[in-house]
Amino acid sequence: MTRKQIKPGVVLFFIGLLLFEISNFFSNVVFIASYLKIIKFISFGIFIFSFFTLNKSKIHINVKNFFMILILMLLCFISYYKTASTMFIEILLISLNVINLEFKKVVKYDLFIKIFILIFLVSMSFMGLAKSNFVVTRNGEFIRDAYGFYHPNTFGMVIMMIFFEYLYLQKDKIGFRQYLIGALSVITIKLTSDTRTAIYCIIALLLFVPIVKKISTKKYFEVISKNLYIFLLITSLVLTSLYLNNPIMMKNINIFFSDRLKYQSYYLNLYNVNLFGNNIEYVMTLDNGFMKILLNYGLVIVLFFDSIFRFNIKKSLRNNDYKLCLIFLILILFSLAESSIFYIYNNIFLIYCFNNVIKKVGENWWRKLFQ
């Protein structure tokens, strides 16, 4: 039996993905930090080259498709000009590469990359090669450590995403081993960074998998799931506006959200909601992902993410992938407390709708650009 040959374009893509994630996670590593912009630029070049290598015999661009691609590229540059962020460019480059790749293989390699990054950064932290860990005291007593990552919440989020990717790659049945690994993940986060949101998300995934399996075929579940993103966006905006106008009335709700309404109202008062966002100078944290995308990146990117989650949820339900559907729902809820899941180096699941791994769903709207 001959070993299946690995395509050069696939190797290039995963090298690019590794360098891309290194450029976003290694900001505290003293001997790498000054080279991160160069590493990111190199990863972008590899993504462009790997795209043409992977699709050299499959790209057929007519006039209509050419203008659609041109519009997407224009949106990338407008977004970068308005926000000084490459987020939209990053999503576009990675999405172009996964059109003809098996989605689970992409998740598998991303899992390997994140495990490597976790082990490497924790090792650098203990060796003193990751500069000054970000520590947080809670009530003057408890200390949270970032272990080489930018923030303790980032450390907890990475462990959460590693577990999510691991669980997704398992067969349908969740057994003792999966619950054990989930419990170990929760204990690890609790004893180190104490990232409560990540802990709750892991527990929710394990508890609700059997429930979602039973109701995933119900029409009401699909309707609620597809509209969850926009509902939570509107809820976040309304609560923030109410706090801005009457902080005393919203005091208890603000306490419940750990002062997040206070910070959200500060930025909502300072910046306007517009099509392409604002170049925000962050003098205090803005954790709520819905408000951050709205104010920092604008309505166009809000609609872009709403479309992504709608397509992802619809596709996962039609393919009876209830675990993946639940992961999307939990990540959307996670965005109430953290904005990290909107960045593709944190959340590789975003690309699911761009991938055409399951043919029975029908032609993928993204792939049509190149056919």
Describe the secondary structure blueprint for this structure:
Blueprint: H1 8-25, H2 36-54, H3 63-83, H4 87-97, H5 103-126, E1 136-138, E2 142-144, H6 152-169, H7 176-191, H8 196-215, H9 219-226, H10 228-245, H11 251-256, H12 260-270, H13 289-297, H14 299-318, H15 322-334
Antiparallel strand pairs: 1-2
Short description:
The protein has helices at residues 8-25, 36-54, 63-83, 87-97, 103-126, 152-169, 176-191, 196-215, 219-226, 228-245, 251-256, 260-270, 289-297, 299-318, 322-334, and strands at residues 136-138, 142-144. It is mainly alpha-helical and 371 residues long.
Note down, in words, how this protein is organized.
With 371 residues, the chain is mainly α. The chain has 15 helices and two strands. The chain has helices at residues 8-25, 36-54, 63-83, 87-97, 103-126, 152-169, 176-191, 196-215, 219-226, 228-245, 251-256, 260-270, 289-297, 299-318, 322-334, and strands spanning 136-138, 142-144. The protein has a two-stranded antiparallel sheet with strand order 1-2. β1 and β2 (142-144) form a beta hairpin. α14 packs antiparallel against α15. The radius of gyration is 21 Å and the shape is globular. The protein starts with 7 loop residues before the first helix and ends in a 37-residue tail after the last helix.
